[in-house]
Design brief:
single chain, 287 residues, mainly beta, Immunoglobulin-like, 2 domains, five-stranded mixed β-sheet, four-stranded mixed β-sheet, 3 helices, globular
Length: 287
C-alpha cells in the first residue's frame, strides 16, 4: 500500500534513520575535516549497512530491513586506509560511540502524533540527527591561540585516550578541554574565558587536569594492537535520541566499567603565554 501516491503508481520511500553532523569542539560549528566512519562489527567481517557521506560533510543511514536500534561506530581522521597509521592526518582525535536510533515504527507513530498536535514533524526529525563533537589532534589547523601541546604517560609509556580539563588557577572556571590521542599527546586550546572583564590574569596560570582510566587496558591477544590500531578506544554510549547529551559533546569522560572509568587523575599548574603555544614541557604522569 502506498503512503503518498495513488495505488496505480509504484512508490519507494527512503526514510532517514540516523543523520550525523560532526562538530568542531573549538569553533562549535560543523567540522570541516572529512572523517571516516566505520562500524565496529565490520572488523569481524560482519555485514553492516553503509553510512553515506554527503558533500556537506554530513552522514546518513537509511532505514532498511534488519536495521538494528544501536550501532557502535568509530570516527577517525584518515584519508583512505584504516590499517596504515602513516596515512593518519591527526587533525582530530578519534572517538568510538554507541549510537541508539529510533525504530521506524517509533518514528511513524511519533510523527503522526506530532502532526495531529501541531501539524509538524520537525521535533521528530531532530531526534534522528546526532552532532558528536571532535577535539583537535596534533595536526589541527590553528594559529596564534594560547595553547599547550602536552603528553601523558603511564608506567613510562604513552597513556592513550586521555581527557584534559583546564581551569583558571584556584577556580572552577573552565577555559579549555582536550582529548588525548593514541600516542598520549594532546593539543589544548585555551578559550576567551581566561579574560576577566577586559583584563587577562598575569601571570596566566592555569590548572591542567588530566584524566585516564582507573587501570590500563590490556589487549585480548598480543597481535591485537597491530591488527586494530584503535583496539582500546573507549566506548562512549550516547543518550537516547532527543536528549541533551554531555557524552556527544565530549564533556563527560568515558565511564563504562570496569576498565573505562576515568577516575585516575593528575593536576598541574602551568604558566601560559598569551597567544603562544607551549610545547616540550614535562609529561603528565598518571599512576
Amino acid at each position: 500500500m502506498n503512503q503518498f501516491l495513488p495505488s496505480r503508481f509504484e512508490e519507494r520511500v527512503e526514510r532517514l534513520a540516523l543523520g550525523i553532523e560532526p562538530m568542531d569542539a573549538i569553533s562549535a560549528r560543523p567540522l570541516t575535516y572529512q572523517l571516516q566512519i566505520q562500524h565496529d562489527a565490520s572488523l569481524l567481517g560482519l555485514p553492516r549497512p553503509p553510512i553515506e557521506r554527503h558533500t556537506s560533510n554530513r552522514y546518513a543511514l537509511r532505514y532498511q530491513p534488519g536495521l538494528m536500534t544501536t550501532f557502535d561506530l568509530r570516527f577517525f581522521d584518515q584519508p583512505d586506509r584504516f590499517y596504515k597509521p602513516e596515512h593518519d592526518r591527526r587533525r582530530i582525535v578519534p572517538r568510538r560511540l554507541r549510537v541508539p536510533i529510533l525504530s521506524l515504527t517509533d518514528v511513524e507513530t511519533q510523527e503522526q502524533a506530532e502532526a495531529d498536535a501541531a501539524n509538524t514533524n520537525v521535533k521528530n526529525f531532530r531526534r534522528r540527527i546526532r552532532r558528536p563533537t571532535f577535539f583537535p589532534g596534533a595536526a589541527y589547523d590553528f594559529n596564534g591561540t594560547t595553547s599547550l601541546r602536552g603528553r601523558v604517560t603511564r608506567g613510562g609509556l604513552p597513556m592513550r585516550w586521555a581527557r584534559v580539563v583546564a581551569t583558571l588557577e584556584g577556580t572552577s572556571v573552565i577555559v579549555g578541554r582536550a582529548h588525548g590521542d593514541d600516542r598520549g599527546e594532546f593539543l589544548l586550546l585555551i578559550n576567551a574565558a581566561v579574560t576577566t572583564g577586559s583584563a587577562t590574569p598575569k601571570p596566566l596560570n592555569i590548572d591542567v587536569t588530566v584524566l585516564g582510566p582507573a587501570a590500563a587496558p590490556t589487549p585480548s591477544s598480543p597481535d591485537l594492537p597491530k591488527l586494530d590500531p584503535l583496539w582500546d578506544l573507549p566506548l562512549e554510549i550516547l543518550a537516547a535520541p532527543g536528549v541533551d547529551d554531555p557524552v556527544a559533546t565530549g564533556v563527560q569522560p568515558p565511564d563504562q566499567p570496569p576498565a573505562q572509568n576515568y577516575t585516575a587523575t593528575v593536576t598541574r599548574t602551568v604558566e601560559f603565554t598569551l597567544g603562544k603555544c607551549l610545547s616540550g614541557i614535562e609529561d603528565f604522569v598518571i599512576t
